[in-house]
Amino acid sequence: MNAPPIRLGEWHQAYLYGMGTVLILSGALWLLFHYFVRIPGDFGPTLHPLEPWFLAIHGISAAGLLIGFGSVMPGHVRRAWRAARNRVTGSIFFGVMLALTVSGYLLYYIGSETARSFLSIFHWVVGFSLPALAGWHIWRGRVWRHITMAENRARASALRSGAQASAVRSGAQASALRHKAESAASEEPTAGQALPQSNAKGIRVVGQSSDP
Prior knowledge:
Mean pLDDT: 79
Low-confidence stretches: 205-212
Order of helices and strands: HEEHHHHHEE
Distance between the termini: 85 Å
Structural class: mainly alpha
Number of strands: 4
Strand order of the largest sheet: 1-2
Strand content: 5-15%
């Protein structure tokens, strides 16, 4: 029975890639509008009205990505860890997701402006590393998959070669037995042929007549 595949299904991949893309884009747009885009107000430049929407989309997509991340733990992560595949990039990816989750949670609830400033810089620096880390993890997974496929092909070829060698040996043994049986059959006397006999002096006489 074949082991369950480590690779995620197409719909599973599409969900994670989609949520991750929305998460990164919404965070990048929030940073852009928060620090570089202002609109004139009654008391000077003020926040752009799209900025809260980007932040809301960022929070919703973060929750969606966490749901998808949790869904890979019992299958994809567990099977890959048991097979000792892609452990380094997987562990780093897990640590980055944990750091982003904790820092994002604290940004929503912490009150100190100094702490918020530090957490904000930490959050977006680590967040922008997520696409590169995901690409590294996916690339390493494909390398492992190609290695596994090559090993399976080599194993199947070895099994076929072993089966062919066994068939050749069996054929050679059968041929030797057949040749031995034919040789034994050719040495047996045919019908009407006199059998060798011995006279009184122990001399073998073949086909000796009883007439004087």
